[in-house]
Amino acid sequence: MTDFHIEISEQMPPASAVLYAKSMGLRAFALIFNAEYIPEFPQNNSCFAKEKSTSPHTASLLAKQKLVHDLAVYYDVQAVFGIKLKHIPPALLESAVACYRGLGISFIGVHGESISDIVEQGTNFSAVSAKADILFNPGLIDEKCTELAAENNVFLEISTHPKHAYTNAHIAKLAQKYGAKLALGSHARTLEEIHSPDMQKAVLKGACIETEHGCELLRKIQQF
Known about the structure:
alpha/beta; 7-stranded parallel beta sheet; 9 helices; 7 strands
């Protein structure tokens, strides 16, 4: 089973997160760093190069991405590094996704309109319009947004976290109707919140989900 939403921080650094996830029986997972900072949007490739060489923020992210890659090789797991754009104004999401993509971040998600958090209305639609890789915590996503997610190959998260799992069945129902792809995430911030494959299967069954598309999302990231 896969988990595309394990959050890394000072409390759970990448090395601990990889070891914990592997110990829970996961073989493929994403370690996510919350990114609330928006780099200046570059206008050409030379600006991308300048941003890479001069920004401490960018250097830190790329160092984390390399560390996760090295840990994955050492522990023989498929671990990828990603960022979550959280509470970014919807009007700025397209620029933010494009900028981080240009800086070499291979997996970009957006914190969606979860019913358990305060998120600006319009975030879901802006995230799928910007072609983020995944919309975390989509909440009560509407039909138009779900249809666009399918068209833009944006994955929708099915959450195993109690705080965000309330709307799993709604998300799954619309995803099935419009052909949108689903991927599991735990929103784990501690070892105890990383769920075993058995728990993941139970959550999927509870939401009447027969198929999730974690392997497809993993291939998409690895092709970046």
